[in-house]
Amino acid sequence: MSKLLSANSRVSRFLQTFRSCPARGFSSVSLKGRSCLTLKDFTSEEIKKMLWVSADLKHRIKQENEYLPLLQGKSIAMIFEKRSTRTRTSTETGFALLGGHPCFLSTQDVHMGVNENTKDTARVLSGLCDIILARVYSHSTLEELDKEASIPIINGLSNLYHPIQILADFLTLQEHYGSLNGLTVSWIGTGNMVLHSFMMVAAKLGVHLKIATPKGYEPQKSVIEEAQRLSKQHGTQFVLTSDPMEAAHDTNVLVTDTWVSFEKEEEEAKKKRLKDFEGFQITMQTGSVAKPDWTFLHCLPRKTEEVDDEVFYSSRSLIFPEAANRKWTIMGLVVSLLTDYNPKIPMIKF
């Protein structure tokens, strides 16, 4: 079995993946003024530009100790209908690190949906802030915010997509493997917003995607159809199955997420769900049919039913670098939507 990279050697390998040639074509890609509700709306080149900017900020700030006040004088309104550890912390610390001011707004802080409609909230915040990140229950809330606001909207998580998580996941894999093109990612779990976002991005980065869900827990039909179209367009493999071991076979990356809702479920419903997911826990046995260099991702929070401790805390697990990269990819996304910034490092290898 190949020895996996240590944290320090991952950074070293990451830095070696910078291309010495100029990034012709990418410097001209501008995302300024756009919203990001789903990565379905972005091309391969645009997603790569987001990741390149994120890698650039991480290298210049973390490795070179540069101070980059790119968001000096700007503010972000952070609307959170759902609680959060990574999204809130990464956005607040990242925006502040770039010289901007983050403003956290929970359901106890704003009138949206209670004494004021979404339309009015969007218009008010457009006059007070430069960008809005919203973590909401319904994707339609984001769509209404985007329709009524005159500033960019970022999806911090909805019932349909979680784009900022996927940017962090792919930056983490790029750092670890040195490139993304040709990798196989296998999702073993439920068809949710994180999986939907994987499905909208993988093919655009040349990544093969295999999905195993129990029957009745598949991704949405419209998302499947779009993923199939993208796979055909970009020449990648896209597999749907109900067999976890089939999905894990010959893969580079095993990924899962929470099967049970973040919110409280009826005990009987929870028992049924756990029964439906029997055999879907990721273990070293699951990894035994994967490639020798297989790794593991989970967006957190995690329960042991989804992945056992042996895998979760092993050297194969990239979960903590993945969580840390939420900060750099949020920073990269916000900088891309608010400025015309072009990275100073050479283009990273995709």
TrEMBL record:
<dbReference type="InterPro" id="IPR006130">
    <property type="entry name" value="Asp/Orn_carbamoylTrfase"/>
</dbReference>
<keyword id="KW-0055">Arginine biosynthesis</keyword>
<dbReference type="GO" id="GO:0019240">
    <property type="term" value="P:citrulline biosynthetic process"/>
</dbReference>
<dbReference type="GO" id="GO:0004585">
    <property type="term" value="F:ornithine carbamoyltransferase activity"/>
</dbReference>
<dbReference type="Pfam" id="PF00185">
    <property type="entry name" value="OTCace"/>
</dbReference>
<keyword id="KW-0809">Transit peptide</keyword>
<keyword id="KW-0028">Amino-acid biosynthesis</keyword>
<feature type="domain" description="Aspartate/ornithine carbamoyltransferase carbamoyl-P binding">
    <location>
        <begin position="34"/>
        <end position="175"/>
    </location>
</feature>
<dbReference type="InterPro" id="IPR002292">
    <property type="entry name" value="Orn/put_carbamltrans"/>
</dbReference>
<comment type="similarity">
    <text>Belongs to the aspartate/ornithine carbamoyltransferase superfamily. OTCase family.</text>
</comment>
<feature type="domain" description="Aspartate/ornithine carbamoyltransferase Asp/Orn-binding">
    <location>
        <begin position="182"/>
        <end position="336"/>
    </location>
</feature>
<comment type="subunit">
    <text>Homotrimer.</text>
</comment>
<dbReference type="GO" id="GO:0016597">
    <property type="term" value="F:amino acid binding"/>
</dbReference>
<keyword id="KW-0835">Urea cycle</keyword>
<protein>
    <recommendedName>
        <fullName>ornithine carbamoyltransferase</fullName>
        <ecNumber>2.1.3.3</ecNumber>
    </recommendedName>
</protein>
<dbReference type="GO" id="GO:0005759">
    <property type="term" value="C:mitochondrial matrix"/>
</dbReference>
<dbReference type="GO" id="GO:0000050">
    <property type="term" value="P:urea cycle"/>
</dbReference>
<dbReference type="Pfam" id="PF02729">
    <property type="entry name" value="OTCace_N"/>
</dbReference>
<keyword id="KW-0808">Transferase</keyword>
<comment type="pathway">
    <text>Nitrogen metabolism; urea cycle; L-citrulline from L-ornithine and carbamoyl phosphate: step 1/1.</text>
</comment>
<dbReference type="InterPro" id="IPR036901">
    <property type="entry name" value="Asp/Orn_carbamoylTrfase_sf"/>
</dbReference>
<keyword id="KW-0496">Mitochondrion</keyword>
<dbReference type="InterPro" id="IPR006131">
    <property type="entry name" value="Asp_carbamoyltransf_Asp/Orn-bd"/>
</dbReference>
<dbReference type="InterPro" id="IPR006132">
    <property type="entry name" value="Asp/Orn_carbamoyltranf_P-bd"/>
</dbReference>
<dbReference type="GO" id="GO:0042450">
    <property type="term" value="P:L-arginine biosynthetic process via ornithine"/>
</dbReference>
